[in-house]
Specification:
globular, mainly alpha, about 90 residues, single chain
Length: about 90
């Protein structure tokens, strides 16, 4: 799946479940390092539970800044500044 396809799938799922939309907004609102650390824990848990590959692919995609920004744009929420514009950077 392309990044755009993954975003569409996540937006479709979020449209059906407000709690998923809320979690996606919170994850995507984290800075890159915090998001990567959180997603590593989530991914490890899902792998231990033998989650399907498409679920793991979506979790991995959430670690990408471009995917996080697209989701924020589609779902609403606070955008994460690009790394070169991050506060204190």
């Amino acid at each position: 799946m392309t990044a755009g396809d993954l975003v569409e799938v996540m937006v479709d799922v979020a449209a059906r479940d407000a709690s998923i939309a809320r979690v996606l907004r919170e994850i995507c609102g984290l800075d890159g390092a915090a998001r990567a650390a959180a997603l590593e824990l989530v991914g490890a848990h899902l792998r231990a539970q033998a989650a399907p590959g498409d679920v793991l692919e979506c979790v991995a995609a959430l670690g990408r800044d471009d995917v996080a920004r697209r989701l924020i744009e589609r779902l609403g929420g606070e955008a994460v500044p690009p790394p070169d514009r991050a506060p204190g950077g």
